[in-house]
Amino acid sequence: MRKNWLFCILIVSAAALLGNARVPGPSFQFTSIDFPGATLTRATGLNSEGQIVGRYVAGGAFHGFLLSQGTYSSIDVPGASYTIAHGINAEGQIVGRYAGAHGAVHGFLLSAGSFTTVDYPNAIYSSRGDIAGTYIDAGGSQHGFSLIGGSFRSIDFPGATFSEAIGINSEGEITGVYSYVTRIETANNNHGFVLKDGAFTSFDFPDAASTFAWKVNEQGQIVGCWVDTNGVVRGFLQNNGSSFAAVEFPGSTYNYGSAINDSGAIVGTYIDAGGKTHGYLATKTRPDASSHEEDLRFRVVGD
Q1: What's the chain's Rg over C-alpha atoms?
Q2: Which range of residues forms the domain containing residue 52?
Q3: What CATH number has the domain bearing residue 152?
Q4: Nearest by Cα to 134 from 175, 185, 77
Q5: What are the two backbone dihedrals, phi and then psi, of residue 10, each rounded to the nearest 5 degrees?
Q6: For the segment 257-287, what is each residue's pLDDT rounded down to a tens digit?
Q7: Angle, CA 261 vertex, CA 258 and CA 263 arms, to 5°
Q8: Tag placement on the chain: N or C end, fewer CB within 10 Å?
Q9: What pLDDT digit, counting tens, does each position of 74-99 carry?
């Protein structure tokens, strides 16, 4: 359902970029996430309890999933042609999107076993119930939005052609992506942003052709991906605006980080050398940054 958006946001441009230092980050132990029998799995959300949500393909259709205490459960909105889970908060509420009987796309909230349609596809809930997401207006333009304390605000990076709000934490800090060119032309023209206390700050991974900021935790750590000059998609962790670190599943050809919880655990997606898509969970094995890049090691658990 399309709505007239009568809300505005006071935009205060932030001229200073976040720190561009690329340093060796924490060491991670990686675990593959594959829904049983699926041909494709993507992990997209993670809460403080370690519960993971995402989507998988089986029988040619997308389904959502929850991975909790080692057990996988499917998530399918009744009557939907596909269901995709995007995120899960500390209370176990799950949000995502689905396609209805006539192909119209809707958002959903799954709480205490009950589905509620939320007509803001791609919405994400924070731990206190605030929402960030994306909508398309009647003219076809794409905008981010937030719903905080019962009040809607449209989110548009100053001067951008399109904006997406992707992550939100309990402090109301919002992350996303924007571009100054049309959406279809943005393979090498995206930039990440943080919206905090009404002020936008833009950032780019060093030397990236494109940067996507996905989710943010309560400490202000951000995960996402960047595209290098060869067109390879790679994952990153940004620590409180001061530095970047690579987060990449060993031996993979494609990576991105989708979510980070308050313990610093990360979920995301990678493609292996054989071309299959998997989710992953990355947990820290060494929390402190090393002064030697060669000390950044990985240990793989599960394929």
Answers
A1: 18
A2: 12-301
A3: 2.120.10.30
A4: 175
A5: -70, 115
A6: 999 999 999 999 999 999 999 999 999 886 6
A7: 135
A8: N
A9: 999 999 999 999 999 989 999 999 99
